[in-house]
């Protein structure tokens, strides 16, 4: 039985659905994560990469979309069947720092902490910078949207960013899981559908994608001048490391571990565990389909429209330049449509990302021994404190930098280095701590090994590129 009342609540066991339609009714965490996935990575970095490189890196965009979902599903399998949170899972890895033994050792934590936790903490500042870039992009879109309303006075982009930050606080403060899920379903689906339609209509214009473009994009060419933007895109596109972590918390909030139950001796436990793991797998697959179509649409629009016109989104004109993907395809009337959609999709990224962070941050404090795991009241207080504090910090960072794409690249690049660690953690936990009755098949394990090698190779390639850039 799990000793964490946050992950497994007594009396909530539930038999899993046995049909596809039944499983579809229990989806939700993937939609919330899609609010973060189909957001900054696609509209800022994927379209930006297409604008810079054209169709050359189409193969890399597909690679970035597909390679990470297996780790997402298998790490969620572990969380759902064990009742461990994501950070508790990381902290079970061998290689732990010593705990403080007396008050004079102030530099040591109160409890032993494993090395993946420390590595993840290094990403706090890059993640905060990324959050600032995303909320800044949402603020730019909101400012343009308000300017288009005749009855509303002109609103400065910085003021609009502040308004966006306040909106995030209000929605996260007043909304529990169900409300957040409903809001993000509307945001993600509406703009994703619009973008896919726009990309399809592009085929009726001078910017249409040809078979030669597709073939050229699948040649596995990788010009080094696009290395930093491409790795940033890889770290932010598809299920990034932050979304993989966040997804496990949304699975907990949805209730999957509670539905399975913590009593592994119960005669129905294995059947329940396998059934709810199948629900998770369907949830991940639906997310993968959505993000693939949305990501390719943004890339085709960036490569087909912006690249051909020599337009690259930069600084405070980011959203205005990206709007050309719609206006040059559909006509000037679509400017407002794009701005409206850009606000929705960037705002949904902020909402989803900070919502997940507000669940994981109290868990970090638990991991470091600041309060007991069973103290749900204190956990809730820290969740609300995070909801207030992080939007303010993100807003202040954007005010200092005002470069949304560059800011998103910072955190996304660090996230790319966290991905192979998550693959290693998944492999270790499945072999050492997961109940053998619900482990994945051997071919799945070997696929994760392949994913790890591909992720580690890309990180090494990036380091090599940085070396050439500075010392070559």
Q: Topology, please?
A:
Layout: H1 20-25, H2 29-37, H3 40-53, H4 58-66, H5 69-82, H6 86-90, E1 96-97, E2 113-114, H7 115-122, H8 124-147, H9 157-174, H10 177-201, H11 211-217, H12 227-236, H13 241-254, H14 256-260, H15 269-309, H16 318-322, H17 324-330, H18 335-367, H19 376-401, H20 404-432, H21 442-471
Antiparallel strand pairs: 1-2
Describe the structure.
With 472 residues, this protein is an all-alpha fold. It contains 21 helices and two strands. A two-stranded antiparallel ribbon has the order 1-2. Helix 5 runs antiparallel to helix 15. It is globular and about 65 Å long. The model has no long low-confidence stretch (mean pLDDT 84).
Q: Could you give a quick summary of the protein structure above?
A:
This protein is mostly helical and 472 residues long. 72% of the residues lie in helices and 1% in strands.
Cα Rg: 22 Å
Q: Major β-sheet, in short? A: 2 strands, antiparallel
Strand order of the largest sheet: 1-2
Mean pLDDT: 84
Strand content: under 5%
Weakly predicted, low-confidence segments: none
How far the N terminus sits from the C terminus, by CA atoms, comes to 56 Å
Structural shape? globular
Count of separate DSSP helical elements? 21
Number of E-state strands: 2
Query: Which structural class do the helices and strands define?
Result: mainly alpha
- N-to-C SSE string, H for helix and E for strand: HHHHHHEEHHHHHHHHHHHHHHH
Proportion of helical residues: over 70%
């Amino acid at each position: 039985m799990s000793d964490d009342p946050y992950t497994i609540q007594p009396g909530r066991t539930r038999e899993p659905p046995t049909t596809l339609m039944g499983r579809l009714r229990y989806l939700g965490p993937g939609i919330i994560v899609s609010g973060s996935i189909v957001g900054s990575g696609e509209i800022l970095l994927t379209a930006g990469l297409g604008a810079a490189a054209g169709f050359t890196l189409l193969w890399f965009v597909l690679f970035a979309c597909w390679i990470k979902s297996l780790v997402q599903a298998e790490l969620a399998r572990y969380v759902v069947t064990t009742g461990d949170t994501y950070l508790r899972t990381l902290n079970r890895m061998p290689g732990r720092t010593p705990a403080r033994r007396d008050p004079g050792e102030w530099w040591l934590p109160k409890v032993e902490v494993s090395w993946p936790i420390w590595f993840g903490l290094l990403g706090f500042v890059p993640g905060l910078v990324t959050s600032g870039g995303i909320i800044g992009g949402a603020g730019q879109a909101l400012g343009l949207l308000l300017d288009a309303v005749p009855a509303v006075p002109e609103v400065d982009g910085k003021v609009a960013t502040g308004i966006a930050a306040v909106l995030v606080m209000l929605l996260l403060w007043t909304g529990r899981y169900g409300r957040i899920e409903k809001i993000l379903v509307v945001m993600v689906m509406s703009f994703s559908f619009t973008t896919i339609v726009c990309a399809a209509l592009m085929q009726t214009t001078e910017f249409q994608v040809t078979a030669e473009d597709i073939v050229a994009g699948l040649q596995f060419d990788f010009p080094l001048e696009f290395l930093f933007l491409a790795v940033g895109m890889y770290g932010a596109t598809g299920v990034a490391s932050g979304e993989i972590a966040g997804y496990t918390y949304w699975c907990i909030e949805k209730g999957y571990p509670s539905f399975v139950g913590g009593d592994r001796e119960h005669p129905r436990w294995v059947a329940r565990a396998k059934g709810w793991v199948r629900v998770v797998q369907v949830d991940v697959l639906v997310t993968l389909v959505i993000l693939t179509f949305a990501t390719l649409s943004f890339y085709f629009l960036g490569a087909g429209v912006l690249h051909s016109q020599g337009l690259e989104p930069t600084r405070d004109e980011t959203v205005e330049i990206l709007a050309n993907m719609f206006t040059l395809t559909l006509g000037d009337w679509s400017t407002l449509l794009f701005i409206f959609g850009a606000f929705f999709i960037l705002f949904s990224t902020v909402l989803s990302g900070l919502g997940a962070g507000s669940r994981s941050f109290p868990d970090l404090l638990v991991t470091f021994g600041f309060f007991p795991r069973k103290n749900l009241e204190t956990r809730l207080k820290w969740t609300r404190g995070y909801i207030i504090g992080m939007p303010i910090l993100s807003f202040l960072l954007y005010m200092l930098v005002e470069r949304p794409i560059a800011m998103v690249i910072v955190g996304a690049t660090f996230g790319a280095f966290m991905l192979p660690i998550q693959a290693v953690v998944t492999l270790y936990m499945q072999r050492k701590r997961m109940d053998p009755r619900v482990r994945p098949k051997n071919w799945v394990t070997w696929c994760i090994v392949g994913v790890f090698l591909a992720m580690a190779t890309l990180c090494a390639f990036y380091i090599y590129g940085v070396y050439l850039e500075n010392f070559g």
